[in-house]
Amino acid sequence: MGMWLKAAEAAANTAESRNRCVDFLRALSIIAVITGHWLVTAVFLEDGQVYVSNLLVHQEWSKWLTWVFQVMPIFFLVGGYSNGVSWSSSLSKGKSYQDWLKGRLERLIGPVIPLLVAWGIIVGLGTLFASEAESFKVLGHAGDFVDKPAVELASQLAIVPTWFLAVYMLVVLLAPVTHAAWLRFGLHSFWMFVGAAVLVDFLTFRTGSEQVGYLNFIFIWFAIHQLGYAWREGKLEGLQKSLSWGLGGLVLLVCLTNLDLFPYPVHMAGNPGDGISNSFPPKLPMLALGLAQCGVLLSLERPIRQWLKNSRPWTLTIIINGMIMTIYLWHFTALTLIVGAAWKFGDLGLTTDAGSGAWWAARPVWFACFVAALAALAMIFGRFERNRPAAQPAAAWRQVVGAVLLCFGLAILAKDGVVFRGWKEIQSWALALPLCGAWLAGLIAFPRKHGEKAEDG
């Protein structure tokens, strides 16, 4: 109740000039992503072992749901709008890149550190106890004490959401450059990224090299980010203009995923089986989906802004935005906690066939449990997102290098997990990179010896 009252007070004091639709779409996109992940993650039991499958594998029609729930493009659109506003404001006030960057990175880096520390400890203890169980035959079977594959699977699942931070922090670091490109070239800056994305996809399929495709983590998401600048400047304003973008994106998406001329699948999330993934790394259908979603949602901007003048939806939007990175980063951890509890308490709900009538009927119960677990985690770890260090910002080069180190570590963890090719091969160095990066950027401080003075600036 205290949280609602504080948010209601902030809602009452919101400036009339604020575009509330930006905050609403940010909250909507994260909630949709979380819901989609919980929906398509099919956990089942086989021979006493827990496995994670994908609903897209079990029910062909569910692949179309990804066109609705894969809304990460909206987050990058909103990011472009917000970064454009904050950077322009910073310039008008005479603030430096150093000061501006600190404020942007604090909100992103703060929530991810406790997630990495928590799972580093869980996997580390799991390794220790599993080793002891095998050496001393605790309870007669190592799996009775610590189930190594289950912890390994859970840790990889829990860290997957960090891929977004690895990309988005690069977007933030280069926002002054991309904003300058927008001011200089306008929508041509968007089309330059689109052209680069087309070339990357062509080379990816021509050479068969997935490594080339990873460049589209930059080109496709930066292209959507440029549309955020366009939105702020009114270039997408108006029902006819926004729907034209949306319809164009939808037609392109249908053609790319349904015509035999192109190799792209329909699904826009995950990579069921050994087929091509449209999302990891992103490919042209993801860009087309982003255009379709942006166009449709921006066509509704005026009624959304009018609706958000009501105190209740706007207060709820403020609450979600206040812990948005926390709930995003911890939502798979919430799932693993509930699934782990169901497994240990008699395999509750884990023997139902994915996609069956009984499986769908149980979704509301599972979702209620996931929400309860995530709410508890948000209450515990949300403080790392809301509390801001009062120290002076570190030098700009330190913030940039630190953020790059953090991005590199998160990218490796999101791709390979905490445990890589065998239980004992914990990627401690990959876990350490984000911590070192956050320290170098001046966003966390290690304990100092007694009497040691803090470094200025």
Can you offer a commentary on this structure?
A hairpin with a 2-residue loop joins strand 1 and strand 2 (49-54). A two-stranded antiparallel sheet has the order 1-2. Helix 2 (20-40) crosses helix 17 (311-322), helix 2 runs parallel beside helix 18 and helix 11 (187-207) runs antiparallel to helix 13. The chain is built from 23 helices and two strands. It is mostly helical and 457 residues long. It has one domain. The protein is globular, with a radius of gyration of 23 Å. It starts with a helix and ends in a 17-residue tail after the last helix. The model is unreliable at 132-145 and 446-457 (pLDDT under 50). It has helices at residues 2-12, 20-40, 55-58, 66-69, 72-92, 97-136, 142-145, 148-159, 162-173, 175-185, 187-207, 210-213, 216-232, 239-258, 284-299, 301-307, 311-322, 324-344, 357-361, 363-381, 383-386, 396-416, 428-440; strands at 41-46, 49-54. Helices cover 70% and strands 3% of the residues.
| Percentage of residues assigned to helices | over 70%
* CA distance, first residue to last residue: 38 Å
Shape call = globular
What's the number of domains? 1
Q: Give the biggest beta sheet.
A: 2 strands, antiparallel
Low-confidence stretches: 132-145, 446-457
Q: Report Rg.
A: 23 Å
Give the SSE order as H and E letters.
Answer: HHEEHHHHHHHHHHHHHHHHHHHHH
